[in-house]
User: What shape does this take?
Amino acid sequence: MSRGPGRIQSAIERLMAERPDDILSVADLCQVAYPGLNSVDKKHRVAVARAAFNALGRAGWSYGRSGQPGGMNVYYNPCSLRSYALAKMREDFVLSRYTTEEFRLVVDGKMECPYCLEKALEAMKPGGWIWRHVEIHKAEVAGRDEEAAKMRSDLNAEVNRKMAALSL
Assistant: This one.
């Protein structure tokens, strides 16, 4: 019988609560779970990844795989526009040449936007696909299932119209 979250999972949940508008990697989580550790070994990464997976549901976060070779896990808050956008940028294979810090600077408006990131920034504006996904998730979390279903069907209809236009 479980006695609740352990030390590592509790540290991860605290970090997720402290940084709700950011994305986290296993490397970020290892720094919090094992402070002062000089060398992070595979056993540390595995323990952190397992604890992070268990923390996701309790914290309301989700994860995806980055587009970089090796495909590291990217943990993000689907109710936060910034966090969701950063995660989708990090997961994109074409954008894998940029660092997570560069994504943060572009999203925060502190760095000039490279051409290939312009579409992602457009998608963050109201009506864009990233913005819509976040709004759908917020509605689901708030228990407004009918509203979420309506937004999802509107988004699907728009995608189907665009796909039909491409096949002409």
